[in-house]
Amino acid sequence: MIKAIMSEISLPTLGSLPSRLTRLYAGLALYGVGIGLQIESHLGGSPWDVFHQGLSIHMGLSIGTWIILVGALVMLLWIPLRQKPGIGTVSNVVLLGVFADAVMWLAPTPDPLAARWAYLLLGVVATGAATGLYIGAGLGPGPRDGLMTGLNRLGLSIRTARTIIEVTVLAIGWLLGGTVGIGTVVFALAIGPLTQFFMPRMRPKG
């Protein structure tokens, strides 16, 4: 999916390097907001965040720290897949967990169910918008997306690679105690259409 989206972005439309860096870091910050709000909703996270949450429950350290550590470990899998990281890849590994932890600290779980649903929906929309910003910067895929496209280069379709990866991390995260729920379903159904909606709107004009 990421490769298909990137193929539609021609280099002249990406904008200047300062503009691309602004979109990259704004996208990472907004992605952290999305992760933090969805986790704090306690209605179910994305597959990777269920995995990160499960690791945090069983092995200590914050969820954001596990986002960073897992991202770094996933990058090691790029070596046999001959994937090349960009500044966006490294920035994703270093900063995404920091932003997510900051949001979870600043916005603890509310009691009313309506407020938790608001967290969930705002988190999913923020993630979709962040994906549009981040991918549109064209400065390298995130480590998890790079794993998917690397498997695609070995012959797996993007759909198959993504399904295998996300089902695997979701199952492990659930077994470790991560929260799987309606939010997980909402994320799975909404993230594709939201990304498609935001991608053209996050590109620089002209």
Automatic annotation (TrEMBL):
Tell me which UniProt keywords the record has, alphabetically.
Membrane, Transmembrane, Transmembrane helix
The protein's matches in Pfam families, at most eight in alphabetical order, are given as: DUF6198
Record field: transmembrane: 21-39, 59-79, 86-107, 119-142, 163-191
Q: Does the keyword Transmembrane helix apply?
A: yes
Show the PANTHER family listed in the entry.
INTEGRAL MEMBRANE PROTEIN, INTEGRAL MEMBRANE PROTEIN-RELATED
Protein name from the UniProt record: Integral membrane protein
Organism lineage string: Bacteria, Bacillati, Actinomycetota, Actinomycetes, Streptosporangiales
